[in-house]
Amino acid sequence: MKPYIVRRSLLDGLTVAVFLSVALTLIYNPTDAQMHDLGMISFIFLCGMVLGAIISFVLNAKGIKTFGENIFEPDYEKAKGEAKPFFRTFWGWHFFVTVFVLFIVGIYKTKFSMYELLNEDGFAGAKRLFAGLASPNWDVLPTAVLNIIETIFMAFMATILAIPFAFVLSFMAAKNVMKGPGAFSVYLFIRTVLNVTRSIEALVWAIIFSVWVGIGPFAGMLALMIHSIASLTKQYSEMVESVSDGPIEGVQSCGASKLQTIWFAIVPQVVLPYISFTVYRWDINVRMATIIGLVGGGGIGTMLIKYQGQAMWPEVGTIIVVIAAVVWLMDQASAYIREALK
Amino acid sequence: MNSNSNSEPILKVKDLKKTYPNGVQALKGVSFDVKRGEFLVVIGLSGSGKSTLLRCLNRLHDPSSGEVLFQTDHQGHSIDIMNLHTKASIRDLRKKVGMIFQHFNLIPRHTVLANVLMGKLAYTTNWKSIFGLWSASDKAEAMKYLKLVGISEKAHIRADQLSGGQQQRVAIARALTQNPQVLLADEPVASLDPATCHTVMDYLKKVNQELGITVICNLHFLSLVRQYATRVIALKNGELVYEGDPKNIDEAWFEKIYGQGAKEVHIN
After folding, report:
1. Domains along the sequence of chain B with CATH
2. pTM value?
């Protein structure tokens, strides 16, 4: 079987399963208890997917192209048929109806309500808040500045400490360096660990570390560092995988060892993009450090959540001005530096 | 000329086969000898297996089967190139076999001298090379070979500032710094203009005749082959179809090697 058919069946199956679930919900109007029966719900959804895969298979066998087929079919298959405008194709409507159904479900799920948005009481509250924000209380400015310096250094330390780890790991996470069965299993292991690490948000790491080392900037810094190692390694290793083979062959023909090959043929090709990514990571870390402060990671975020909890909007306004100024400056500076490095 | 017909072969290649993982059979059992000190040219269409052949000789590619013996001295010591299983033994082979490439394969961001010193990598420990602790004699040797190819005055310029022909000369100096017995040249002039072509080929000839290094060179242009080769082999679809004197390649042979209707292009 062609491998793309698996992907096609998964996508088409998913769309049909969504249709089926929505239809069943509308018809039977299930109770809360029924909705919480995860086993039953999963079973129905899986049945929907199988049904969808079968329908997709039958339709495509008859030459009617489904959405999944259109996305995943290889280019040489695509070249066989004549291109039609999407509204005259089955897959076009398949796609359109899927998005439409998802949009309707989304309205219910997010409790989207024009009434709440335009409600007068709520609106008056928002107006009060904005008025507070718009007239900042500059008395807290010195504290805010001290706190944002703490935030900047959290980001700085997290980035600096992440560099050596990410640098070494990036070669171990690059397919073109890790050839051979032993090396490849190391590659797979590191890739898996990094993917898991990256899929856990820095916010969650901050909660973990604030229990481990106590609330404060150290916990926030550690959280950012872990996240930076994972992200930088991924970006670095992608650069390693895209280096040109010429210099590698060149030094290997001179009898270079693995380490010498990496150092002389790969590192010179990746060092500029590495610096560029690192500067950008610091910039991202400053922004993330602010958010991490909200869950006890120290710095300006912790100060922000304190005043917000007491609804002291003029003070919050000051803090937001300071954050905005620093983020804007960092953004500009890192853009200039990255431009200059090209 | 250093080569003479009764000198012993430096390389004996027997029934060499190479099949790539994707199933392409690049070499289908090639046998030939290379005599010490000769300038052997390999001709053939793109995809005929010339590059694969050279890369099997210094184990940049691993041959699938066959026999390759490398006679390293007159006392009968030899390296069985097919049976090198450790990294150290392959490193040892590569000390004795230099290589230059169509696209030069220098490190663009490093200086010319740093590039030439790459020829000493196999002789230098990891940490010494990484910290750039090259010995004075290594540097002197690198400069000597830069002088030999006529660009010692560019030693401290970044390699990517040089023209194509100059870069290829740096590559030759890099290979010479290895003190090789054999120099493999994979289409060394294919990305150069006709005038520069001859400069680079002349330096290869000089290396061959003055230093006595055996040269195995892939070439496209028959006019260059006739001018520089002492012997020619021709590959077609991974098989050896001609072996002999370059002057004996007439029109009939040319058509056999390059296919019906092929026309010879002259460069000068």
Report:
1. 9-258 (3.40.50.300)
2. 0.77
